[in-house]
Specification:
By secondary structure, the protein is mainly α. It has nine helices and three strands, in the order H-H-H-H-H-H-E-E-H-H-E-H.
Length: about 190
Amino acid sequence: MGSSPVSPEPSSGRSGRARADDDSLAPADARSPDELAQAVLDAARVRREARPSTPRRAASGERRLRGYSGPGPDPRDPTPLRDLIAQLIKLRGWERPAAEARIFGTWDKIVGADLAAHCRPVKLTDGELTIEAESTAWATQIRLLSGPLLARLQAEVGRDVVRRIYVHGPVAPSWGRGPKRVRGRGPRDTYG
Protein backbone atom coordinates (compact mmCIF):
# COMPACT_ATOMS: atom_id res chain seq x y z
CA MET A 1 0.00 0.00 0.00
CA GLY A 2 1.40 3.29 -0.96
CA SER A 3 1.66 6.05 1.50
CA SER A 4 2.45 9.63 0.75
CA PRO A 5 6.12 10.56 1.22
CA VAL A 6 6.89 12.82 4.13
CA SER A 7 9.91 15.06 4.24
CA PRO A 8 12.30 14.39 7.10
CA GLU A 9 12.45 16.81 9.97
CA PRO A 10 15.95 17.81 10.96
CA SER A 11 15.18 18.16 14.71
CA SER A 12 13.62 14.70 15.20
CA GLY A 13 16.62 12.75 14.13
CA ARG A 14 14.45 10.25 12.20
CA SER A 15 14.52 9.63 8.56
CA GLY A 16 11.48 10.36 6.43
CA ARG A 17 11.32 6.75 5.31
CA ALA A 18 10.99 5.40 8.85
CA ARG A 19 8.20 7.81 9.63
CA ALA A 20 6.31 6.94 6.44
CA ASP A 21 6.42 3.21 7.24
CA ASP A 22 5.10 3.72 10.78
CA ASP A 23 1.28 3.99 10.29
CA SER A 24 0.61 4.80 13.94
CA LEU A 25 2.72 7.96 13.73
CA ALA A 26 1.33 9.13 10.39
CA PRO A 27 -1.32 11.86 10.54
CA ALA A 28 -4.88 10.83 9.62
CA ASP A 29 -4.94 12.86 6.43
CA ALA A 30 -1.71 11.17 5.29
CA ARG A 31 -3.38 7.73 5.23
CA SER A 32 -5.42 6.49 2.32
CA PRO A 33 -9.13 5.73 2.75
CA ASP A 34 -8.38 2.00 2.43
CA GLU A 35 -5.91 2.16 5.33
CA LEU A 36 -8.42 4.07 7.48
CA ALA A 37 -11.17 1.55 6.80
CA GLN A 38 -8.83 -1.32 7.63
CA ALA A 39 -7.82 0.37 10.91
CA VAL A 40 -11.49 0.82 11.90
CA LEU A 41 -12.24 -2.84 11.12
CA ASP A 42 -9.23 -3.99 13.14
CA ALA A 43 -10.28 -1.88 16.12
CA ALA A 44 -13.84 -3.26 15.96
CA ARG A 45 -12.51 -6.83 15.76
CA VAL A 46 -10.30 -6.26 18.83
CA ARG A 47 -13.26 -4.83 20.79
CA ARG A 48 -15.47 -7.77 19.84
CA GLU A 49 -12.85 -10.34 20.86
CA ALA A 50 -12.25 -8.54 24.16
CA ARG A 51 -15.96 -8.78 25.11
CA PRO A 52 -17.04 -11.79 27.20
CA SER A 53 -18.68 -14.49 25.14
CA THR A 54 -21.63 -15.11 27.51
CA PRO A 55 -25.02 -15.15 25.78
CA ARG A 56 -27.51 -12.39 26.44
CA ARG A 57 -29.83 -13.12 29.34
CA ALA A 58 -33.52 -12.42 29.66
CA ALA A 59 -34.79 -10.13 32.42
CA SER A 60 -35.44 -13.12 34.70
CA GLY A 61 -31.82 -14.31 34.41
CA GLU A 62 -32.42 -17.35 32.24
CA ARG A 63 -31.18 -17.84 28.71
CA ARG A 64 -33.56 -16.58 26.06
CA LEU A 65 -34.67 -19.33 23.73
CA ARG A 66 -35.33 -18.85 20.05
CA GLY A 67 -38.18 -20.08 17.87
CA TYR A 68 -41.60 -21.35 18.86
CA SER A 69 -42.22 -22.70 22.34
CA GLY A 70 -43.99 -25.86 21.20
CA PRO A 71 -46.77 -27.82 22.88
CA GLY A 72 -45.07 -28.37 26.26
CA PRO A 73 -44.44 -25.95 29.11
CA ASP A 74 -41.83 -23.33 28.35
CA PRO A 75 -40.44 -20.33 30.28
CA ARG A 76 -41.65 -18.10 27.44
CA ASP A 77 -45.29 -19.07 27.98
CA PRO A 78 -47.51 -16.34 29.44
CA THR A 79 -47.86 -16.50 33.22
CA PRO A 80 -51.43 -17.15 34.43
CA LEU A 81 -53.00 -14.25 36.31
CA ARG A 82 -53.55 -16.35 39.45
CA ASP A 83 -49.80 -17.03 39.64
CA LEU A 84 -48.98 -13.33 39.26
CA ILE A 85 -51.47 -12.43 42.00
CA ALA A 86 -50.04 -15.14 44.27
CA GLN A 87 -46.53 -13.74 43.72
CA LEU A 88 -47.75 -10.22 44.51
CA ILE A 89 -49.51 -11.37 47.69
CA LYS A 90 -46.38 -13.17 48.86
CA LEU A 91 -44.10 -10.26 47.95
CA ARG A 92 -46.22 -7.70 49.82
CA GLY A 93 -46.89 -9.93 52.84
CA TRP A 94 -50.65 -10.03 52.33
CA GLU A 95 -51.12 -13.74 53.07
CA ARG A 96 -53.19 -13.25 56.23
CA PRO A 97 -55.53 -10.51 54.85
CA ALA A 98 -56.02 -12.59 51.69
CA ALA A 99 -56.94 -15.66 53.76
CA GLU A 100 -59.38 -13.59 55.82
CA ALA A 101 -60.97 -12.18 52.67
CA ARG A 102 -61.28 -15.68 51.23
CA ILE A 103 -63.62 -16.62 54.11
CA PHE A 104 -66.07 -13.86 53.18
CA GLY A 105 -65.66 -14.30 49.41
CA THR A 106 -66.08 -18.06 49.22
CA TRP A 107 -68.34 -18.67 52.24
CA ASP A 108 -70.82 -20.83 50.32
CA LYS A 109 -68.03 -23.07 48.95
CA ILE A 110 -66.39 -23.47 52.37
CA VAL A 111 -69.48 -24.34 54.43
CA GLY A 112 -71.73 -25.66 51.70
CA ALA A 113 -74.72 -24.15 49.91
CA ASP A 114 -77.32 -25.41 52.47
CA LEU A 115 -75.61 -23.90 55.49
CA ALA A 116 -74.62 -20.72 53.62
CA ALA A 117 -78.29 -20.11 52.78
CA HIS A 118 -79.10 -19.76 56.49
CA CYS A 119 -76.03 -17.95 57.89
CA ARG A 120 -73.35 -15.52 56.90
CA PRO A 121 -70.00 -14.37 58.31
CA VAL A 122 -70.19 -10.89 59.83
CA LYS A 123 -66.68 -10.09 61.09
CA LEU A 124 -63.33 -11.64 61.87
CA THR A 125 -61.23 -10.05 64.62
CA ASP A 126 -58.30 -11.57 66.48
CA GLY A 127 -59.04 -15.07 65.21
CA GLU A 128 -62.72 -15.00 66.28
CA LEU A 129 -65.21 -15.37 63.44
CA THR A 130 -68.69 -13.98 64.15
CA ILE A 131 -71.48 -15.73 62.24
CA GLU A 132 -75.05 -14.42 62.07
CA ALA A 133 -77.82 -16.98 61.60
CA GLU A 134 -81.24 -16.19 60.13
CA SER A 135 -83.10 -17.57 63.16
CA THR A 136 -82.39 -18.71 66.69
CA ALA A 137 -83.02 -22.31 65.64
CA TRP A 138 -80.32 -22.06 62.98
CA ALA A 139 -78.01 -20.34 65.46
CA THR A 140 -78.38 -23.36 67.78
CA GLN A 141 -77.77 -25.76 64.89
CA ILE A 142 -74.60 -23.90 63.80
CA ARG A 143 -73.33 -23.88 67.41
CA LEU A 144 -73.67 -27.67 67.43
CA LEU A 145 -71.76 -27.83 64.10
CA SER A 146 -69.07 -25.36 65.20
CA GLY A 147 -66.39 -28.07 65.73
CA PRO A 148 -66.51 -29.54 62.20
CA LEU A 149 -67.10 -26.05 60.76
CA LEU A 150 -63.97 -24.72 62.48
CA ALA A 151 -61.93 -27.69 61.22
CA ARG A 152 -63.17 -27.08 57.66
CA LEU A 153 -62.35 -23.37 57.88
CA GLN A 154 -58.86 -24.07 59.21
CA ALA A 155 -58.22 -26.61 56.45
CA GLU A 156 -59.38 -24.13 53.80
CA VAL A 157 -57.69 -20.88 54.89
CA GLY A 158 -55.04 -21.86 57.45
CA ARG A 159 -54.88 -22.87 61.10
CA ASP A 160 -54.00 -19.48 62.55
CA VAL A 161 -56.65 -17.41 60.73
CA VAL A 162 -59.77 -18.67 62.57
CA ARG A 163 -59.34 -20.03 66.09
CA ARG A 164 -62.85 -19.61 67.50
CA ILE A 165 -66.41 -19.28 66.18
CA TYR A 166 -69.06 -17.09 67.78
CA VAL A 167 -72.64 -17.60 66.54
CA HIS A 168 -75.64 -15.36 67.23
CA GLY A 169 -79.19 -15.19 65.93
CA PRO A 170 -80.82 -12.35 64.07
CA VAL A 171 -80.35 -8.99 65.71
CA ALA A 172 -83.42 -6.82 66.20
CA PRO A 173 -82.95 -3.07 66.11
CA SER A 174 -82.09 -1.62 69.48
CA TRP A 175 -84.05 1.41 70.60
CA GLY A 176 -81.76 2.01 73.57
CA ARG A 177 -78.60 2.74 71.56
CA GLY A 178 -77.60 5.13 68.85
CA PRO A 179 -76.85 8.79 68.28
CA LYS A 180 -80.48 9.97 68.76
CA ARG A 181 -81.21 8.11 71.98
CA VAL A 182 -83.51 9.77 74.50
CA ARG A 183 -82.49 9.28 78.09
CA GLY A 184 -85.07 8.01 80.50
CA ARG A 185 -87.85 5.51 80.15
CA GLY A 186 -88.95 6.68 76.74
CA PRO A 187 -92.41 7.46 75.47
CA ARG A 188 -94.98 5.59 77.60
CA ASP A 189 -98.09 6.24 75.58
CA THR A 190 -96.93 4.01 72.68
CA TYR A 191 -95.11 1.19 74.49
CA GLY A 192 -96.97 1.13 77.80
